[in-house]
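Figure S7 source data.
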Amino acid sequence: MATSSPPFRTGNGYDVHRLADGLELWLGGIKVAHSKGAIAHSDGDVVIHALCDALLGAANLRDIGYHFPDTNPEYRGIDSKILLGQTMNMLREKGYELGNADVVLCLQRPKVKDLIPAMQQCLAQTMQTDTDNICIKATTTEALGFVGREEGVAAYATALLVRTNCI
Ligand code: MG
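Tokens for the predicted magnesium ion complex:
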């Protein structure tokens, strides 16, 4: 690691998946009961995909599509928690640890308010961090746009990394 590496680094991530009837809906590492699910090469978990990109961005390690391309059959239907675990390994190998992460999930339906603690717990376990370091917020888009029309689901994430030798 370069000695000029800053003690703190931030990153942001964004992801979208289309929704279709009869598919599974995975959000924040858990399966959500709903009539629609994500069209995706992986399990289509936008919360985890946005989070991975925020983490990779903070560590200057490119993006999720670079490391886990959707052209690779190895990643077909893959549990995104595996990708998140591998992402954490990459940033730790580069000498960083998670400070905290904050995610905004944009979804018109269903209401996921009651599922958020389970998502936090699941992600914290996958990332080997405290649940207090993972915040997940959910919003509708007031029936506007592709999220509002229930054509898709989106997520935004930010992450703060701390250089390991500064902890
Ligand atoms: Mg994605």
